């Protein structure tokens, strides 16, 4: 495999938690409020894909020697506009504000930082103490959250389908994990490598939630975005790692299209080659490996996935089989020929992905 791209030559990618196929479906809803909010979100996403923020003078925090190994968070308020980053409302160490959304964003950035540092010895998402920035209250009835290569952005939802996007901590972890991928293996956001990019974010997003709650693999719900849907929606989350394709089945949303096996791999030109759909396959492989091993998922299965992402040998255009082979090699390198490698082999075999 070719070495990963140096950080200085990497192009940030716009990565959102809600896939475009779902928003496009909602844009055709018979409910005018739902359709209008979805169309507005699609337009905002299209604009954000082509936009890179320029930090305002004095807004980009820097790390001093005494701050090594500690998060440096800054939360901004867009006040339902789209100019980023917005007005600063909370900095590192500041007291909680009267805005629950601001406080959840601050806590979620911290929970993600804690997982990477405590479980993997990785200082922030770049490994070098990168300050974590987030903007809340983005646009009006904006039904998404995204990482734009520089920062996190959260919408308030439309209160018809989606609630506030800071509610599920795994959504925060998912989006920040796109930054982790950007600074590590730099997986291309297209086809199988793009689905791996999305899957890695689901894996580490789920681990952020499990670590924050002190849950073992057998206690976790393995859902991505649980609590994001309005109570009237027939669904539990955006995705299920335990049972891809079962997260929602709703008259307005449609049915969760994720496959959990290569036999059902979806070939499409939409959504960068189905990156949010086919991520169900590697997602399920991680779930199977983690639950086979038991205990805390970040300790062995998570460590193997982390080793692959930071090992320096994974090609940016890696396919599922190449990533799977890399997890086998990583398991052997760290744990030898024990139960860890057997769990990884069994997991990939169960989802129809070869490892050699």
Q: Brief overview, please?
A:
The protein is α+β, with helices and mostly antiparallel strands and 356 residues long.
Q: In words, what does this structure look like?
A:
With 356 residues, this protein is α+β, with helices and mostly antiparallel strands. Helix content is 40%, strand content 9%. It is built from 10 helices and 10 strands. The chain has helices at residues 20-26, 32-49, 100-120, 169-183, 191-213, 271-278, 280-293, 301-310, 320-335, 339-350, and strands at residues 15-16, 73-77, 87-91, 132-136, 145-147, 152-154, 223-224, 239-240, 249-250, 254-255. A 6-stranded mixed β-sheet has the order 1-5-6-4-2-3, with helices on one face. Strands 7-8 form a two-stranded antiparallel ribbon. A hairpin with a 4-residue loop joins strand 5 (145-147) and strand 6. Helix 4 (169-183) packs across helix 5, helix 5 (191-213) packs parallel to helix 6 and helix 8 crosses helix 9 (320-335). The longest helix has 23 residues, at 191-213. 54% of the residues are buried. Mean pLDDT is 92; it is low at 1-10 and 52-66.
- Overall morphology: globular
Relative strand content? 5-15%
Helix content: 40-55%
Uncertain residue segments = 1-10, 52-66
Count of individual helical segments: 10
Strand order of the largest sheet: 1-5-6-4-2-3
Overall SS class = alpha+beta
What Rg do the Cα atoms give? 19 Å
Average per-residue pLDDT, rounded, comes to: 92
Number of E-state strands: 10
Our measurement of the CA-to-CA distance between the termini, rounded to an integer number of angstroms, reads 14 Å
Order of helices and strands: EHHEEHEEEHHEEEEHHHHH
